[in-house]
């Protein structure tokens, strides 16, 4: 099979600030594999969770290095391909791009969308949240109004049912509380509101915030503590009135057994896990341990979010909104319907170029 690698830059409608910094644009990688006249598409995007960042340049170099090794293989030879990716220590974002492209190829060969190939039901897809980054109360309120079409910027969406609020403000707990109250005041009709601290709290702040957030009707807290502080999650798990989910603390299915006694759920992202194959493995592992599953994203375009949307009938919570916040998304795939990101009936991913 032949592999082509191409970069593209996307710009956010609203710059996103979390506890680790602000992102306004990213340069992603579009991967195409071709075999027997069928082309499968995948995507990688740069991301960092506090360890060595996976940059666009590093991801591209790793894909260029493995491409000649894959030429003699068929997309159906997955064990051999997986061994090659392991032997070459391919970064998880590069693995995700190849894995998604291989799934897209298989779906197109079978002439079936992936959700149907897996036997899933699209009517089981729950609403996705849209994200409000760390900001002042006034800016947070304006951002909500913009998403809802009530502000100065026309919102691209109709039917938003869930919000995710980024907390962990460096100015402290009072700043977090003021921002959240402003968001609630701006959208009193939205009852599904979750919080993601991105490791911005210590255990004592997280515990105090959990009781306050429970009084505010928040549904769950995501990644309250930094990756590496998993031992302290046990205290939150037993004392917090709200469910605790982890993101940065859980990369693959191998991490899940170490977390089952201290979290209620995990956030799965394709770039972090290494693709749809591992994401599906994580879903089944988490559910075997009685954990809830959330599917999330980084700076993914419609290509990668559509890929994960095919697995969304298996998820309890969704945060697949990064493509909805792009000014120049080059792809079209899953559609936003009544607050849900729903894959279409086209073979494979069902992704095409935007006209």
TrEMBL record:
Keyword check for Isomerase: yes
Domain Mandelate racemase/muconate lactonizing enzyme C-terminal: 137-243
Cofactor list: Mg(2+)
GO molecular function: metal ion binding; racemase and epimerase activity, acting on amino acids and derivatives
PROSITE patterns registered for this protein in UniProt: MR_MLE_2
Sites where the protein binds Mg(2+): 196, 222, 247
GO BP term, example: amino acid catabolic process
Record carries keyword Magnesium: yes
Pfam families, sorted: MR_MLE_C, MR_MLE_N
Active site: 166, 269
This enzyme's EC code(s): 5.1.1.-
UniProt xrefs under InterPro entries: DgoD-like (IPR034593), Dipeptide_epimerase (IPR034603), Enolase-like_C_sf (IPR036849), Enolase-like_N (IPR029017), Enolase_C-like (IPR029065), Mandel_Rmase/mucon_lact_enz_CS (IPR018110), Mandelate_racemase_C (IPR013342), Mandelate_racemase_N_dom (IPR013341)
SMART domains xrefs: MR_MLE (SM00922)
Cofactor note: Binds 1 Mg(2+) ion per subunit.
Keyword field: Isomerase, Magnesium, Metal-binding
CDD domains: L-Ala-DL-Glu_epimerase
Family listed: Belongs to the mandelate racemase/muconate lactonizing enzyme family.
Protein name: Dipeptide epimerase
């Amino acid at each position: 099979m032949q592999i082509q690698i191409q970069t593209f830059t996307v710009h956010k409608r609203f710059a996103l600030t979390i506890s680790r910094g602000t992102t306004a644009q990213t340069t992603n990688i579009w991967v195409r594999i071709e075999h027997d006249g069928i082309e499968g598409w995948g995507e990688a995007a740069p991301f960092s969770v506090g360890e060595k960042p996976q940059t666009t340049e590093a991801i591209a170099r790793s894909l260029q290095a493995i491409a000649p090794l894959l030429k003699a293989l068929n997309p159906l030879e997955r064990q051999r391909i997986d061994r090659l990716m392991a032997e070459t220590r391919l970064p998880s974002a590069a693995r995700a791009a190849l894995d998604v492209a291989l799934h897209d190829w298989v779906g197109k060969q079978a002439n079936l969308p992936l959700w149907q190939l897996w036997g899933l039901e699209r009517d089981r897809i729950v609403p996705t949240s849209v994200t409000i980054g760390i900001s002042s109360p006034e800016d947070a309120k304006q951002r909500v109004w913009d998403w809802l079409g009530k502000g100065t910027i026309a919102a691209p969406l109709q039917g938003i049912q869930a919000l995710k609020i980024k907390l962990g403000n460096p100015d402290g707990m009072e700043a977090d509380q003021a921002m959240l109250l402003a968001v609630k005041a701006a959208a009193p009709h939205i009852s599904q509101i979750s919080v993601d601290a991105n490791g911005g709290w210590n255990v004592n702040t997280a515990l105090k915030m959990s009781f306050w957030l429970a009084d505010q009707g928040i549904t769950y807290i995501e990644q309250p503590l930094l990756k590496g502080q998993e031992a302290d999650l046990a205290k939150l798990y037993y004392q917090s009135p709200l469910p605790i989910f982890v993101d940065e603390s859980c990369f693959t299915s191998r991490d899940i057994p170490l977390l089952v006694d201290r979290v209620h759920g995990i956030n799965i992202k394709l770039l972090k896990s290494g693709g749809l194959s591992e994401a599906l493995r994580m879903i089944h592992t988490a559910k075997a341990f009685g954990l809830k599953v959330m599917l999330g994203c980084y700076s993914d375009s419609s290509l990668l979010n559509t890929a994960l949307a095919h697995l969304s009938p298996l998820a309890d919570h969704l945060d697949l909104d990064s493509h909805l916040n792009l000014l120049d998304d080059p792809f079209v795939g899953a559609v936003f319907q009544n607050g849900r990101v729903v894959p279409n009936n086209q073979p494979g991913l069902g992704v095409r170029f935007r006209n």
